[in-house]
Design goal:
Blueprint (H helix, E strand, L loop, with lengths): L4 H12 L2 E3 L11 E3 L1 H20 L4 E4 L7 H6 L2 H4 L1 E6 L6 E3 L29 E4 L3 E3 L9 E3 L5 H5 L2 H8 L5 E10 L14 E11 L4 H17 L8 E5 L11 E9 L2 E12 L1 H10 L5 E3 L4 E3 L2 E8 H12 E7 L7 E7 L10 E5 L6 H12 L5 E3 L5 H11 L3 E5 L3 H4 L1 E6 L5 E5 L3 H8 L3
Parallel strand pairs: 3-9, 19-20, 19-21
Antiparallel strand pairs: 1-2, 4-5, 4-6, 7-8, 9-10, 10-16, 11-12, 12-13, 13-16, 14-15, 17-18, 21-22, 22-23
The protein binds glycyl-adenosine-5'-phosphate (GAP).
Length: 450
């Protein structure tokens, strides 16, 4: 049986307002996605958690928000102009383009036996040519070669070119780090799998500057820290593993690299990389800019170009990991009182990550219940992202919130007017308890921290 989980997840993401295809009314733009009301909250919660753990909770890391557009020389120095390429072949007949190692190609591209996987013609595929993955645009009014600039393919370079600015303004000392969250762009030729590989995406990157010789130790430190952070998102342990890059896999800048992989419905794949970049980046920027980027260690009175240990996570891929891991289909008892079981789809998101923290329901739209429910809702929404729903049976309302991953359902019922308590239903256990409505804020605060 083919695994339909991704199809179901994409459909749920659209139905519930997590993710929509970009420019859908025009037929969509390939591998570009928009985050809807729930998706933007989920991704924001992940990014804020990352920022808190990297920047606020650590004395030795500073934040940065560098511009997407950078001086074109940055990309020569970084090696992206020469090295950020994929070998591609074109079909001269149907004009489609493929990666040279596309398993659907039969025969050897450039030879008469090669067959185009799209139109089926033989001998029409060109020999492989290197194709740069950076998007180009023009800066200023004239579209000429001198005005070409690139959309950044990684956020890291914005950190390297600001390394001295941050060092001097923050009075940090090596070892220290700079963290940044921002958009990156890659003209991927084989994008796909929903938000896994897209042409516009967000990265959460941190570059840690260390003394040469201590890079191996810091590399191990950051590997352990990052795995802990990922586990803390609530991801199932058995779905996570390390993959070390072999010699042929290492990026042009890397001395050593490990990926944290997740077992997606379409197989094991990377969503975060920890890279030992040595002194490649700062040395190259020093060479290309002519500006000294070495560091004076005042305790030993020696100068060196710091080595860099990088942690590089995709905000979109991490969001996809969280969604895939949370997605469950379960048989549960009917919650409208009928004596039967039914199938529910539920996102078992860690409560801190959930877009909506609680939904407030009047059991019925009479007997003063909507007024009380509105008051509870108004009170809660000053502190949490909460949702009000008075449409349909209570069981159906619970199911809608299960699909949104909302951890708590708060129902105002007949007993509320007698003892000022409400029912709080737990998304995962379906258990219901009664909580005094005056204590709801404290109750939710307690449940939502961790
Ligand atoms: N600065 C190092 C760097 O960019 P990378 O392995 O190319 O390293 C890091 O990318 C992370 O960025 C990946 O693990 C992934 O989560 C995310 N990423 C890279 N390309 C992506 C794409 N086309 N779509 C979505 N996320 C992507």
């Amino acid at each position: 049986m083919p695994d339909k989980t991704m199809e179901k997840l994409v459909s749920l993401a659209k139905r519930r307002g997590f993710v929509f295809q970009s420019s859908e009314i025009y037929g969509g733009l390939g591998s570009v996605w928009d985050y809807g009301p729930l998706g933007v909250e989920l991704k924001k919660n992940i990014k804020e958690r990352w920022w808190r753990s990297m920047v606020h909770e650590r004395e030795d890391i500073e934040g940065l928000d560098a511009a997407i557009l950078m001086h074109p020389k940055v990309w020569e120095a970084s090696g992206h102009v020469a090295g950020f390429t994929d070998p591609l072949v074109d079909c001269k007949h149907c004009k489609n383009r493929f990666r040279a190692d596309d398993p659907k190609i039969k025969g050897t591209p450039g030879q008469p036996d090669a067959q185009c996987p799209t139109c089926g013609m033989k001998g029409t595929l060109t020999a492989p040519r290197m194709f740069n993955l950076m998007f180009k645009t023009f800066m200023g009014p004239v579209e000429e070669d001198a005005a070409v600039i690139f959309m950044r393919p990684e956020t890291a370079q914005g950190i390297y070119v600001n390394y001295l600015n941050v060092l001097q303004s923050s009075r940090q000392k090596v070892p220290f780090g700079i963290a940044q969250i921002g958009k990156a762009f890659r003209n991927e030729i084989t994008p796909g799998n929903f938000v896994f590989r897209t042409r516009e995406f967000e990265q959460m990157e941190m570059q840690f500057f260390v003394k040469p010789g201590s890079d191996g130790e810091w590399f191990e430190f950051w590997r352990a820290e990052r795995l802990k952070w990922v586990q803390d998102l609530g991801i199932r342990q058995e779905k996570l593993r390390w993959h070390q890059h072999g010699k042929g896999e290492l990026a042009h800048y890397a001395k050593d690299a490990y990926d944290i992989e997740y077992e997606f419905p379409f197989g094991w794949n990377e969503f975060e990389g920890i890279h030992n970049r040595g002194d490649f980046d700062l040395s190259r920027h020093q060479e290309y800019s002519g500006k000294k980027l070495d560091y004076l260690d005042t305790t030993t009175n020696t100068r060196f170009v710091p080595n860099v240990v990088e942690t590089s996570a995709g905000a979109d891929r991490t969001t996809l990991v969280v969604l895939c891991d949370a997605y469950r289909e379960e048989a549960v008892k009917n919650e409208d009182g009928a004596d039967k079981e039914e199938l529910r789809v539920v996102l078992k998101l860690k409560p801190e990550l959930a877009p909506i923290k609680a939904a407030v329901f009047p059991l019925v739209n009479k007997d003063g219940m909507p007024d009380v429910a509105r008051r509870v809702y108004d009170d809660l929404r000053k502190r949490f992202n909460v949702f009000y729903d008075d449409g349909g049976s209570i069981g159906r309302r619970y199911r809608r919130q299960d699909e949104a991953g909302t951890p708590f359902g708060i129902t105002i019922d007949g007993q509320t007017s007698q003892d000022q308590t409400v029912t709080v239903r737990d998304r995962d256990t379906l258990k219901q308890i009664r909580v005094a409505s005056a204590k709801l804020v404290d109750y939710l605060k307690e449940q939502l921290t961790g």
